[in-house]
Amino acid sequence: MRIGNLAGRLVLVAEDRALDVAGASAGRFDPDPAAVYGVWDDFAAWAATVDVAGHPEAVAFAPADLGAPSPRPPQVIGVGLNYADHAAESGLPLPEVPVVFTKFPSSVAGPDVDVLLPGDTVDWEAELVVVIGRGGRDIPRAEVRSRIAGYTVGQDLSERTVQWQGTPAQFSMGKSYQNFAPTGPVLVTLDEFADPDRLAVSTTITAADGTRTRVQDGSTDQLIFDVTDLVARLSQTLELLPGDLVFTGTPPGVGMGMDPKRYLRDGETLTTEIEGIGTIVQRFHA
Fold this sequence. Notes:
Blueprint: E1 2-6, E2 9-14, E3 17-20, H1 21-24, H2 40-47, E4 59-60, E5 76-80, H3 84-89, E6 99-102, E7 108-109, E8 112-116, E9 122-123, E10 126-132, H4 144-147, E11 148-155, E12 158-159, H5 160-163, H6 171-174, E13 181-188, E14 200-206, E15 212-219, H7 227-235, E16 245-247, E17 269-274, E18 278-285
Parallel strand pairs: 5-16, 7-13, 8-18
Antiparallel strand pairs: 1-2, 1-13, 2-3, 3-4, 5-6, 9-12, 10-11, 10-16, 11-13, 14-15, 14-17, 17-18
C-alpha cells in the first residue's frame, strides 16, 4: 500500500493513479493526511481491501502536487552516524548507542521543493525515514513493525557551520531551516518490500549546466542500529506518537566528508532515491 498527500488530501496511490480516501470511504476517514496516523490500524485494514488501480474514482495526478506524507509530525527524530563509513568520513568513532537529535517540525516539506541556502556550507544526507503509526512507550522489538505506518524518503539537509557552532554543537538549529526536512514522494507500507531491511539509497547532484554527479550510493542493510532496534530504543525514553518521523541516518558520501569539502550551490538540484519508494527533488537558490 502506498499513501500520499495530494494537494493537501489523503490519497491511496497505485503507479500514476490516486484515489481520494475521504471520497472512496464515504467520509469514514478524514481528508487531512495528518489525521490518518491517529486511526492507523483501522485505516490500514480498510485500505487493504481497496483496488486503487481499478477504482472508478481513481485519477491521474502530477507528482509535483504531492506533499509530505506526514505533513505535521508531532516529533521529528534524527539519528546520526548510523552507517560505519559515514562515521569514518566524519572523523568520529562508531557510536555505542544511537546518536539522537531533532529537526524541528517546521522544517518538514514535501518531495519537490525549492530551498533557499541560508549559508555556503549546506550539506546533503539521504535517509530512510520511518513514519510511526500506532506509537507508544517501551515497545517490544517483536511489536515494532506493527507500530510502523511505513517508510518514506527523506533528506536531512544540514547547514554545517550552524550545526557545529559553539560548544556543545547546535545540531538541531543547523538542521531546521525552512524545507530542510523534505520527505516523500509517498509512504510505503512494509509489506510492499521484498526485504524492508535492504533498500538501496542514492543521492545525485545536478549542476546548473546539467552535469550529474552521484554522491551517495548505499544500502539500509548497512545501518549500525537497524529500524527495529532504533524504534524500540527510542520508545524506552520517548512516547512515540502517530505521525512521528524517524530519520534513520545517512550512508557515506556527504559533502563534509569530501576532500576538499563540497557543499550545495546556487542553481543545483538534489535528487534522492530509495529503492521501492521513489525519488524526492530539491532545487537550491542563493
